């Protein structure tokens, strides 16, 4: 496993996307995943050198974080947990997105409880909120960092305006952005000293070949009901992938390798959802793979 050194720590360049183990908890998740299978894949990831595990409470409505905290409790000091504030929900499961400082503190404390830990390695504000100045939740979270509850503070899915404001109240040490072949401009204006986490590496299965235009998703998979997925251009993306594979005579595995290889050129850590051992091993192999026609394929995706 490749390692990168930043923030005076070492991180695996492949990270575990926690939405993969949400299972029956639903929320942001990708289908059936039992407690035992979740524990198995978490431990396998750790045993293969992955030490960064990315979550948010909305992943399984707390269930994913609880599973990670339980499975990795014995190696807590050797792994880096990432969590986020801002995507809260009502009792009926309806999502409530807000960067209200009180909600940020509530969610931080819930994640600490979920992980059964007295600190979180990296804590991020999940999304910009046009109704709340980004400095307000960060000021509140920085106070919690001073108490030792947070090791490193940062932003997720941010923009340059919020990033500049954020630096007025605290150091921004971590930035997480969507970074993949369809979204190649991530991190271009982020300082080199910042730890860059790339999510959407395989674009929710589109770039691994696991999603086809006729794919059906089970009830525990957010792609079966989430408005943001249903209203997206995912089928158009799948068609583009299929035409690109044909044009360059590639297989699904070739594109997966290229997707991870590209992510590594813009992000320090590429986050990938892993539900099975084969997903894990494919991701690790991609880090070492050589890709014919790589530049041509990247250029092709830049035209999408």
Task: Summarize the structure in short.
36% of the residues lie in helices and 18% in strands. It is of the alpha/beta class and 304 residues long.
List the helices and strands and how they pair.
Blueprint: E1 3-6, E2 9-12, E3 14-17, H1 35-47, E4 52-54, H2 63-71, E5 80-85, E6 87-89, E7 95-97, H3 101-115, E8 120-125, H4 135-146, E9 150-156, H5 160-166, E10 174-178, E11 195-199, H6 227-230, H7 234-247, H8 252-266, E12 269-273, H9 277-288, H10 294-301
Parallel strand pairs: 3-4, 3-12, 4-5, 5-8, 8-9, 9-10, 10-11, 11-12
Antiparallel strand pairs: 1-2, 6-7
The CATH architecture designation is: Alpha-Beta Barrel
Instruction: Please give the domain count.
Output: 1
Helix/sheet category: alpha/beta
Query: Tell me about the biggest sheet?
Result: 8 strands, parallel, barrel
What oligomeric assembly is this protein in?
Answer: single chain
Q: Give me the CATH fold name.
A: TIM Barrel
* Total DSSP helices: 10
Mind explaining what this structure looks like?
By secondary structure, the protein is an alpha/beta fold. It has one domain (3-301): Alpha-Beta Barrel (TIM Barrel), CATH 3.20.20.100. Helices cover 36% and strands 18% of the residues. It has ten helices and twelve strands. The strands form three sheets. The chain has an eight-stranded parallel barrel with strand order 3-4-5-8-9-10-11-12, surrounded by four helices. Helix 5 links the parallel strand 9 (150-156) and strand 10 (174-178). Helix 1 packs across helix 2 and helix 8 crosses helix 9 (277-288). It is globular. The mean pLDDT is 96.
């Amino acid at each position: 496993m490749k390692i990168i050194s930043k923030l005076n720590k070492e991180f695996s360049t492949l990270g575990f996307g926690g939405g993969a183990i949400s299972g029956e908890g639903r929320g942001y998740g990708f289908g059936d995943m039992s407690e035992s299978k979740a524990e198995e894949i978490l431990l396998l990831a750790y045993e293969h050198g992955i030490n960064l595990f990315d979550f948010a409470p909305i992943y399984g409505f707390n269930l994913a974080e609880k599973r990670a905290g339980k499975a990795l409790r014995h190696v807590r000091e050797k792994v880096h947990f990432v969590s986020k504030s801002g995507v809260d929900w009502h009792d009926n499961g309806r999502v409530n997105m807000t960067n209200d400082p009180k909600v940020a503190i509530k969610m931080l404390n819930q994640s600490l409880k979920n992980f059964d830990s007295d600190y979180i390695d990296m804590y991020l504000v999940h999304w910009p909120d046009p109704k709340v100045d980004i400095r307000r939740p960060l000021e509140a979270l920085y106070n919690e960092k001073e108490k030792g509850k947070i090791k490193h503070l940062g932003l997720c899915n941010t923009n340059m305006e919020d990033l500049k404001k954020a630096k007025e109240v605290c150091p921004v040490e971590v930035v997480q952005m969507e970074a993949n072949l369809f979204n190649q401009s991530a991190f271009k204006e982020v300082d080199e000293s910042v730890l860059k986490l790339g999510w959407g590496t395989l674009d929710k299965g589109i770039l691994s070949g696991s999603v086809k235009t006729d794919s059906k998703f089970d009830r525990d998979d957010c792609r079966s009901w989430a408005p943001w997925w249903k209203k997206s251009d995912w089928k158009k993306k799948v068609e583009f992938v299929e035409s690109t594979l044909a044009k360059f005579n590639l297989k699904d595995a070739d594109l997966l390798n290229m997707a991870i290889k590209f992510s590594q050129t813009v992000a320090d850590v590429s986050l990938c959802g892993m539900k099975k051992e084969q997903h894990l091993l494919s991701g690790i192999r991609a880090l070492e793979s050589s890709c014919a026609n790589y530049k041509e394929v990247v250029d092709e995706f830049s035209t999408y």
